[in-house]
Fold these 2 entries.
Entry 1:
Amino acid sequence: MRAWTTPDVPSLAVRGPEVALHDTASGALTPVVPQDPDNTARLYVCGITPYDATHIGHAATYVGFDLLNRAWRNAGHSVVYAQNVTDVDDPLLERADKVGVDWVELAERETELFREDMEALRVLAPTYYTGAVESIPLVIALIERLQAAGAVYRVDDDLYFSVTADPDFGAESNLTREQMLEIFPNRGGDPERAGKKDPLDCVLWRAERPGEPSWPSPFGPGRPGWHIECAAIALEHLGGSFDVQGGGSDLVFPHHEMSAGHVHVAGDAFARVYAHAGMVAYDGEKMSKSKGNLVFVSALRNSEIDPMAIRLVLLRHHYRSDWEWTDAQLFDAVDTVGQWRRALSLGRGAPAGPVVEDVLEVLAADLDAPAAVELVQGWVDATLGSDGLADTSDPTAAATIRDLLDAALGLRL
């Protein structure tokens, strides 16, 4: 599958520190220094199910992990980044049926809109952008490995994964069994299905149903389960023990727990660090299709809102925090972008060297974008001065700060 076009990003004269992230599994700030001999960092971030347009909650996640991609690059590492598109799944099929559109057409349309939104927000494109449909051969091969390990069984014609086959099951989410059982049915699980060995077991291969798409396999016609899809794609493109598995905090369980379990039982290690972005609310509740409280990136863009102002709103919230979107934040960001452009247009400015080093340092410490934004604001205030026209001594400051904003924060001003 085609990704979007990666923007040109300037190189900085100053190398950034090594990055550390909050690891969900350990609960600790953990260095994520690449272990590959070629100094390459490896990142997997779970992608969209393209049944609707990109909302601000999606954008916050992908901008958050874009900061990681940039921080690694500024620390001198190459990055191999894989992301999936769940271009066949129940929500997509249900949405297509509801609106009377072919599911393939819907998936292609919304995926293209997602690409446009990511380009507008200057999110660096993944190295590998893989759809669920094109990953089916990878999924089949991984299921066969799980069968060989004795971790697969049938319920009717569906294949299920035995979570008890992974002795480390639960180590990523750190949830109790009771907590898992409470969450599971709300996030795609079917704990009540008759014939399952354990209520927490998850589907690997969904057998063909009337009116649903299916593909041939050694197990009979059908389609992949959600968790095995990401496990197979990550393993194929990143190998075992890749550096970071990322996604929204609503993926901690069951999605990331199950994906890791599949790979563990197949005989490989999964991610070394699990990092999760917070949830974004609107009108007092988490943005979701079921609530109807979505703010779409494309709608804002079509209203002639500067995408850099949208990105700045996201950067003013730590990627791990839960927060609420408001129009006031957006309008304030529009004003701030204008102020920053004015400061940059002066050419001269307050000394830039300390700002560059400080911004790279706070971003390396768990991607603290709000602190980075405040540091830049300090430079802007010092440059403009009380009368807005301060003449300062660094004739290269504006160019240096402009490159910093682009390379580290993804803001092209």
Note: The two ends are 31 Å apart (CA to CA).
Entry 2:
Amino acid sequence: MAGVLSTAQAAPIAVSLGDPAGVAPELIAEAWTRRKEAGLAPFFVVGGALALGMAAASRGLSLPVRQIERAGEASDVFDEALPVLGDADCAPEFGVPDESGARLALHSLREATDLARTGSAGAVVTGPIAKARLATVGFTQPGQTEFLADACGLAHESAVMMLAGPSLRTVPLTVHEPLARVPGLVTAELILAKTRIVARALARDFGLSAPRIAITGLNPHAGEDGRMGREEIEVIAPAIARLQAEGFHVSGPHPADALFAAHERDGYDVALCMYHDQALIPIKTLDFDAGVNVTLGLPIVRTSPDHGTAFGIAGKNRASAGAMIAALRMAGDCAARRAAPLPNESPA
């Protein structure tokens, strides 16, 4: 969806290792070996030189690793070796997460985020973590999105999750909530706030000066004129009308069962969906191996592959590096736009 841009003016990308017992280290290693064909901007990993070497060996990859002391050294090293910042490390057993791995994952996430926040890194790409395991070593947030919001001094609702792939972008209005709670959480205020954040971010980071946002209904057939629910009439449609009055290019409420058909997707740039599965099922069906989780609304660029730790296949050379490569490429594109914005990319 987004073209590869020159990243000469952007600082290198910081990559957090993720859980070293999962697939992230081997996918980072493969991404580096494919850096030229994929057109990736320079990146470095925070910690985990040994873990990365073990993971590369499990895939039969030749991975030269060079430890660096400062983020700025990464660009000079990147063509010849994978830069690794610092000496934090562990020797993981693939598929078996443990406390040492969790501590390394949390250290890597904290340091990578701080480097992006202070401008030493142009973006942060986060490897998948095991949240329950991290909770035992001091991770208190529901997930990495909330961690990044806290690190940037923002309320959690100001950090908006977008899933992006080659064929589709979606945003869940409500995220990790039980389905029974969703109707009570769908409010006009939340729709207004998230749509504004999405529109500004797509302009700033994706080069879409007037993004087209399709907003789904909550109920089957978007409520069918109130016969299947009144949220569309009482909440969603009034919010859409207000956004249109403010000049945003929004439409809906759309029936979610038809919105993701191929002939419909050309009509919008992103779909704002009412709940988690409404947004994630289509993106994972269409773009599972190239889906990227992007956090909108932050003062920094953050992307992540849209998959988990995949402990069951870690170290078995079965995981696809497509989503990791896509996350790195997207981070580089967004960082380049922030470093050198174009005249037609002013926020909506």
Note: Residues 160-297 form a domain with the Isopropylmalate Dehydrogenase fold (CATH 3.40.718.10).
